[in-house]
Design goal:
It is built from 8 helices and 18 strands. By secondary structure, the chain is α/β, with parallel strands linked by helices. A hairpin with a 2-residue loop joins β8 and β9. The relative contact order is 0.12.
């Protein structure tokens, strides 16, 4: 029987209703898990580990590093890993882990729920059973299991606050469909080499969402800091305004003169950024901005944090960012 390490980090799945508010309750969750779901023992030999207990809105890169180190420390003790996580930032954490875990040869499956496990109509039981079973399968992936689907972690984004169908993979098909049987599709092929981790993330990231009437003047001050990465959420396929008060090309030139990397992503969820479609995008590319392609915002941000943390700068950063290193982009 396969051995699965179940890592608890908090989130709605581990909450309960108290005075009309949901609160984290790790002890109650552990009781429910062990006493009310004995069927899990028929799927795998499960060891549980309480790493931390946080609402996912409080998760940050230090927690990502903890998770990567935890998986590394227990690598030889488990055949697969299931991480219980809040839904709000699950796609960020899954993306971040996908870059940190190198030469992955075992499944790392994230799951959670929209309703606490202690509630009668919770989706937690189904998601957890599916995630445990998937963690016993030949998957070299960091993935998200939710509502009878398995998505590549760095291709996922949260699309619903209240529906059980909370996640989607807009520009990449599901890794598995779950019905009476689990149907696995093609997954990321393991690269040669021994499993290792690079769990360092830089926080020198600035995320700027364009909107009509935006004043860019306050953003000129970012170059007072040490160089990092500016991610611009542009319109459509990467289009940007070119006239005052939001002359984005002039601001990009200012950022590039200060050795900041500039990445163009889109406010649209589906399809890809192509900087050669409109004059604004072409101007950004001519100034040295790079396209996020069809990556999610979560993957764009965490990949930038990972590459800076790994020491990539200048042309090396751009080359790595434009390379599909973990299945996060199509081109």
């Amino acid at each position: 029987m396969k051995k699965i390490l179940l890592i608890q980090t908090g989130g709605t799945i581990a909450m309960h209703l108290d005075n009309r508010q949901t609160r984290l309750d790790p002890d109650r969750f552990t009781h429910l898990l062990l006493m009310e779901m004995p069927e899990l023992g028929k799927i795998a030999e499960i060891e549980t580990l309480k790493l931390f207990f946080e609402d996912s809105s409080d998760i940050h890169p230090t927690h990502w590093t903890q998770l990567a180190n935890c998986i590394h420390d227990h690598w030889n003790r488990a055949d697969g890993f299931v991480i219980l996580h809040g839904t709000d930032t699950m796609a960020y954490t899954a993306s971040a882990l996908s870059f940190a875990l190198q030469h992955l040869s075992k499944p790392v499956i994230f799951t959670g729920s929209q309703i606490p496990m202690s509630n009668i109509r919770s989706d937690a039981r189904r998601n957890l059973i599916n995630a445990i079973e998937l963690a016993t399968m030949p998957l070299n992936e960091v993935a998200i299991c939710f509502n009878d689907k398995l998505f590549r972690g760095n291709r996922s984004t949260k699309i619903s606050i209240g529906d059980f169908d909370a996640f989607a993979s807009p520009n990449y098909p599901p890794l598995a469909d779950i019905g009476t049987q689990i149907e696995l599709h093609e997954t990321w092929k393991r690269s040669r080499g021994f499993f290792s981790i690079q769990p360092t993330y830089s926080r020198k990231i600035r995320l700027v969402k364009l909107y009509p009437g935006m004043d860019l003047q306050p953003w000129y001050r970012i170059t007072e800091d040490d160089p990092g990465v500016v991610i611009i959420e542009a319109y459509g396929s990467g289009n940007i305004p070119m006239k005052e008060p939001a002359n984005v090309p002039a601001w990009i030139r200012h950022c590039r003169d200060g050795d900041w990397q500039v990445v163009i992503t889109s406010q649209a969820v589906y399809d890809a950024v192509h900087l050669n479609v409109y004059e604004g995008g072409a101007a950004a590319a001519n100034l040295g901005a790079v396209s996020a392609g069809d990556m999610t915002l979560e993957a764009t941000l965490t990949k930038s944090m990972y590459l800076l943390g790994a020491g990539f700068r200048g042309d090396e950063f751009q080359m790595q960012f434009l390379t599909n290193i973990r299945g996060e982009r199509s081109f």
